[in-house]
Amino acid sequence: MRAGNLDRIIEIQRRTTGLDLHGTPVEAWTTFATMRAQLLKNATDDREDARGHTTDATRTFRMYYLASLSLNDRLLYEAQQYEIISIIEIGRRVGMDVTCEKAGR
Question: For the chain, does the N or the C end have fewer beta carbons within 10 angstroms?
């Protein structure tokens, strides 16, 4: 993996739980890592399913290895939120390919 190819900036966000003024649990997303990445694949898929006609935006990013990344996290790129659907390790903790779908479809 060449550092010069990592020309995009992404944020990795993790769900956290806090309390509001009334003591009620509230979930929020907080950024725990800002990384450089390479956009490998940018695709859209039009299909018919139970929700009707939908268009899914799928992107695959290549970045350096981040041990704590999981499918429960989300990715923020160009002010768009993406749900992580696949994490593939490259080499032995060298890097990873992260495939995401646009959140809130």
Answer: C
